[in-house]
Amino acid sequence: GQGGGTPPAAMIAQSEILLYYTRLAARRRTAPGDDVISLLVGSDLTEEEVLLNCYNLIIGGDETARLAMAGGLLALATYDKEWARLREDHALVAPAVEEILRWTTPAAHVGRIATRDAELAGRRVAAGDVVALWTVSANRDEAVFDDPDRFDVGRTPNRHLTFGHGPHFCLGAQLARAEIRALLAELRASVSAITVTGPVTWLPSNFINGVGTLPVALA
């Protein structure tokens, strides 16, 4: 969490979630199904690794999705012509979801350990080096995105790295996408104008990239 620690109620809720997954994993070991929990318990993962991956399913589509939705709302309020485009054309919902994910990039960076010697953009990386991969920078890469500092709800293709890549691809990606789609559907159905009504603050973190407070009026 940010700032002054985790409130007791949140710690209790976290413990309850972990206990729920512990019991669910135990049931799936004796009676597996075709769900993701059964796949995890049937793998080579340890019991602790199964539990942590289950927990990642929740947080992967929770905090980062919430921050993406808040940041997306701010972007739509700021770039009202893009909001007008989105309101008028349902076909733009899917690319708008991806553009919100690129634009907001809730997880600013990830850490990795190099498995072998390599050279990247003229820089030597030795096996065992710890490197920081700045996703927030990659998602504004001029070599990949046309006019990367422009918020474009119709941007296609959109090869953002918000969810990572390869074996570390975010487990909660589809849940996050579904949540953002649901938000956009509700906004398109019920809202014509989005107006920021006060100061916007940002979370004091170089890892979690997102809005702390966002006062808005929906009309």
Low-confidence stretches: none
Mean pLDDT: 92
For the biggest sheet, the summary is: 2 strands, antiparallel
CATH topology: Cytochrome p450
Structural class: mainly alpha
**What percentage of amino acids are in beta strands?**
5-15%
Helix content: 40-55%
**Major β-sheet strand ordering:** 1-4
**Which homologous superfamily in CATH is the superfamily?**
Cytochrome P450
Defining traits:
47% helix, two-stranded antiparallel sheet, 8 strands, 8 helices, 219 residues, Cytochrome p450, globular, mainly alpha
Describe this structure in words.
This protein is mostly helical. It has a single domain, classed as Cytochrome p450, CATH 1.10.630.10. 47% of the residues lie in helices and 11% in strands. The protein contains eight helices and eight strands; from the N terminus they run ααααααββββααββββ. The strands form four sheets. A two-stranded antiparallel sheet has the order 1-4. A two-stranded antiparallel ribbon has the order 2-3. The chain has a two-stranded antiparallel ribbon with strand order 5-8. Helix 4 (63-78) packs across helix 5 and helix 4 (63-78) packs parallel to helix 8 (173-190). The longest helix is centred in the first third of the chain and has 23 residues, at 8-30. The protein is globular and about 55 Å long. 22% of the residues are buried. InterPro entries: Cyt_P450, Cyt_P450_B, Cyt_P450_CS, Cyt_P450_sf. One of its GO terms (biological process) is cholesterol catabolic process. Keywords: Heme, Iron, Metal-binding, Monooxygenase, Oxidoreductase. GO terms for molecular function: cholest-4-en-3-one 26-monooxygenase activity; heme binding; iron ion binding; steroid hydroxylase activity. Belongs to the cytochrome P450 family.
